[in-house]
């Protein structure tokens, strides 16, 4: 077993972990912690009744990580209750995104997950009233620099992150899944119109299955921070495996990606899910998304970048090009969000003008 890829083997073949030496376990735990996937590995082993076969010391780390994940999930439920209370008089349904949606919908993607914030999406014309309601209930903006405020409110697809003054929890309020300055413009109205009510709620929604996968793909492959990229790819893998049980899922996914102009991020999502995690994708689906495929030269370089940057940010998963790959993908993601002139201005401002953290 190649040490650099212990984390991938753990996700692909949890059964193989039983034969690991303590030295291998030490490396795997370090890699998994950097990727926020240790609790996920614990659950994969437990689902296969293999956890008791793990040596005591590594098993302690796995079980502790699961306890932390369970506490995070409890906190998500509580936080969403508070958000619902804050917005109950606004008349805008809470549409949950990403991890919070997985938790509330009880999807397999929620298992073993850790959370740093709650993401919701609302119509753009409701942003001001939603922000005001959240402020009245204790949330406040976290970015006070005038440039950052303008950056979010003028060009981005979300408000500046808001942190609760007592609980210190963070909420990101979106009005789209990509910035208005981005080359791709998936119609937020279509996404919101197709959102589905959660069972037992009349004020909480999640994206439809195909839209949930597409948003996960957009989030990962347009993101300028890939430290948790493998965790996000595991989310995509889990969503695909779960929703593939629906009779028309793969057709719906292809049609929806074409309708929303998201064939390229879907192509990357399926390509790298198969490459890293052996995700079962029908051959017909891979053929259906070929018009999202970049030209051969672009794809060659993109493979070189993502095959490095999607691994955990640990030295055992890095080579001499990994840091450069992450930097290039940072610039790529920022370039995808804004036109060239605005990009140059933004990078100059962040490098030389914006206040630096202490």
Describe the protein's architecture and organization.
There is one protein chain. With 358 residues, this protein is α/β, with parallel strands linked by helices. It has a single domain, classed as Beta Polymerase, domain 2 (2-Layer Sandwich). The chain is built from 16 helices and seven strands. It has helices at 6-12, 22-34, 38-47, 56-87, 98-104, 127-136, 146-155, 188-194, 209-221, 229-243, 249-260, 263-277, 283-288, 296-309, 322-337, 340-352, and strands at 94-97, 118-121, 139-141, 162-164, 170-174, 196-197, 204-206. The chain has a seven-stranded mixed sheet with strand order 3-4-5-2-1-7-6. The radius of gyration is 21 Å and the shape is globular. The chain starts with 5 loop residues before the first helix and ends in a 6-residue tail after the last helix. The mean pLDDT is 92.
């Amino acid at each position: 077993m190649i040490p650099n890829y212990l984390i991938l083997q753990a996700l692909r073949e949890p059964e193989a972990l039983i034969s690991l030496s303590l030295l291998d376990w030490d490396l795997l735990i370090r890699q998994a912690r950097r990727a926020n996937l240790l609790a996920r590995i614990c659950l994969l082993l437990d689902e296969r009744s293999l956890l008791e076969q793990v040596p005591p010391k590594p098993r302690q780390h796995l079980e502790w990580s699961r306890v932390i994940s369970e506490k995070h999930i409890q906190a998500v439920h509580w936080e969403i209750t508070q958000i619902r209370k804050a917005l109950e008089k606004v008349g805008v349904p809470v549409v949950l995104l990403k991890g919070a949606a997985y938790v509330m919908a009880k999807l397999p993607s929620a298992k073993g997950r850790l959370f740093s914030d709650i993401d919701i999406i609302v119509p753009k014309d409701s942003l001001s009233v939603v922000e005001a309601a959240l402020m009245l209930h204790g949330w406040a903006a976290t970015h006070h620099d005038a440039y950052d405020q303008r950056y979010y409110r003028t060009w981005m697809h979300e408000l500046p992150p808001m942190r609760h003054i007592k609980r210190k929890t963070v909420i990101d309020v979106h009005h789209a899944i990509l910035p208005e300055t981005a080359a791709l413009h998936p119609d937020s109205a279509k996404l919101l119109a197709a959102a589905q009510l959660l069972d037992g709620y009349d004020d909480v929604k999640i994206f439809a299955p195909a839209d949930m996968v597409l948003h996960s793909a957009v989030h990962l492959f347009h993101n300028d921070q890939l430290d948790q990229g493998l965790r996000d790819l595991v989310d995509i893998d889990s969503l695909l495996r779960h929703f593939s049980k629906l009779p028309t899922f793969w057709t719906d996914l292809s049609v929806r990606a074409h309708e929303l102009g998201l064939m390229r991020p879907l192509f990357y999502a399926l390509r790298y899910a198969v490459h890293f995690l052996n995700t079962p994708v029908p051959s017909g689906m891979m053929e259906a998304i070929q018009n999202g495929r970049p030209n051969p030269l672009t794809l060659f370089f993109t493979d070189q970048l993502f095959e490095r940057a999607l691994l955990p940010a640990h030295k055992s998963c890095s080579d001499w090009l990994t840091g450069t790959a992450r930097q290039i993908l940072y610039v790529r993601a920022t370039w995808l969000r804004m036109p060239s002139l605005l990009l140059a201005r933004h990078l100059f401002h962040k490098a030389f003008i914006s206040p630096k953290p202490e």
